[in-house]
Specification:
heterodimer; A: mainly beta; five-stranded antiparallel sheet; B: mainly beta; seven-stranded mixed sheet; four-stranded antiparallel sheet
């Protein structure tokens, strides 16, 4: 089982709709969870992080964490064409001092 | 000011050559990393250094040798390059420990071995 799993997509969403990106992880002791966005040919950039169960909102983005289900998601409201990118879920593996990434989900927002 | 900078941005070389990629961070972070991103966009950690000390080596061939002269620099030297080494290599840095371990990435080095 991979440490961090995401659907690779592509995920296609109409402009203005909600995009929902999902991620599961295998280590129950994982403490911190990150969502990065990567445009083609660019480096990953952090969108949000979440540590506690529940929802965390930042503008159009909401991160959701359910440690019991080992599940973290990212919702993007009012999707814009500029949101089209690959979204990477990353997990801080307990005691390992490293971020482990999922394979990324390619998101396309259609005008 | 660039937080994490790596050079070169592009590197095209022949099989069997030896090449180096340099990385520097001005964020005052204790931990630096090298990640490899393959053609399927999977970002996989290769090495992690904390205060110049190697703490993670993720079963990378010993043709890859990281060197950290100080905690602000982590260079990657690759010997006897192979076709399969073609990828984008990202340097990153973070603070050590705790929950706040966000990694900041350099712009990447696209290595093409021909």
């Amino acid at each position: 089982q991979k440490e961090v799993e995401q659907n690779s997509g592509p995920l296609s969403v109409p402009e203005g709709a909600i995009a929902s990106l999902n991620c599961t992880y295998s280590d129950r002791g994982s403490q911190s969870f990150f969502w990065y966005r990567q445009y083609s040919g660019k480096s990953p950039e952090l969108i949000m992080f979440i540590y506690s169960n529940g929802d965390k909102e930042d503008g159009r983005f909401t991160a959701q964490l359910n440690k019991a289900s080992q599940y973290v998601s990212l919702l993007i409201r009012d999707s814009q064409p500029s949101d089209s990118a690959t979204y990477l879920c990353a997990v801080n593996i307990r005691g390992a001092q490293k971020l482990v990434f999922g394979q990324g989900t390619r998101l396309t927002i259609n005008p | 000011d660039t937080a994490v900078s790596q050079t070169p941005k592009y590197l095209v070389t022949q099989m069997g050559n030896d090449k180096s990629i340099k990385c520097e961070q001005n964020l005052g972070h204790d931990t630096m990393y090298w990640y490899k991103q393959d053609s399927k966009k999977f970002l996989k950690i290769m090495f992690s250094y904390n205060n110049k000390e190697l703490i993670i080596n993720e079963t990378v061939p010993n043709r890859f040798s990281p060197k950290s002269p100080d905690k602000a620099h982590l260079n990657l030297h690759i010997n006897s390059l192979e076709l399969g080494d073609s990828a984008v290599y990202f340097c990153a840095s973070s603070r050590l420990g705790g929950q706040d371990t966000e990694a900041f990435f350099g712009q990447g080095t696209r290595l093409t071995v021909v």
